């Protein structure tokens, strides 16, 4: 997978399985195999990070760094959380 199709796949995974980390996304896509070479693992994660950064710039996802991992979730979930907070305040 390359380019926009990979980005769409990443977004779909984030929307269906949030909260999720970058390593989990690469495992779901089959890009990152456990027990492989360290160089291949880093390359797979870097590929996902590139597309995650693009999705953040497009304001489609949000992230929070917890420890050494970036946790990702869709922007529309953040909007639902804000609506819920407003309704609880009434």
List keywords for this structure.
4 helices; Arc Repressor Mutant, subunit A; three-stranded antiparallel β-sheet; single chain; elongated; 16% strand; alpha+beta; 90 residues
Set out the fold topology.
Layout: H1 3-17, E1 20-21, H2 22-29, H3 38-57, E2 61-66, E3 69-74, H4 75-88
Antiparallel strand pairs: 1-3, 2-3
Helix pairs in contact: 1-3, 2-3
Structural account:
There is one protein chain. By secondary structure, this protein is of the alpha+beta class. The protein has one domain (3-88): Orthogonal Bundle (Arc Repressor Mutant, subunit A). It is 63% helix and 16% strand. The chain is built from 4 helices and 3 strands. Strands 1-3-2 form a 3-stranded antiparallel β-sheet. β2 (61-66) and β3 form a beta hairpin. The N and C termini lie far apart (47 Å). The mean pLDDT is 87.
CATH topology: Arc Repressor Mutant, subunit A
Give helix % range: 55-70%
Side-by-side strand order of the widest sheet = 1-3-2
In whole angstroms, how far apart are the ends? 47 Å
Tell me which CATH architecture applies here: Orthogonal Bundle
CATH class reads: Mainly Alpha
Total beta strands: 3
Strand content: 15-25%
User: Averaging pLDDT over every residue, what do you get?
Assistant: 87
Q: Total number of helical segments?
A: 4
CATH superfamily: Winged helix-like DNA-binding domain superfamily/Winged helix DNA-binding domain
SSE string: HEHHEEH
Query: Uncertain spans, ≥5 residues at pLDDT below 50?
Result: none
The domain count comes to 1
Q: Could you describe the largest sheet, including whether it forms a barrel? A: 3 strands, antiparallel
């Amino acid at each position: 997978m390359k380019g926009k199709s990979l980005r769409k796949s990443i977004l779909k995974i984030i929307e269906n399985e949030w909260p999720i980390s970058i390593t989990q996304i690469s495992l779901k896509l089959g890009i990152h195999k456990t027990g492989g070479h360290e160089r291949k693992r880093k390359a797979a994660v870097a590929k996902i990070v590139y597309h995650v950064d693009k999705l953040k710039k497009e304001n489609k996802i949000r992230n929070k760094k917890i420890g050494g991992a970036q946790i990702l979730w869709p922007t529309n979930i953040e909007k639902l959380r804000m609506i819920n907070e407003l309704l609880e305040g009434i």
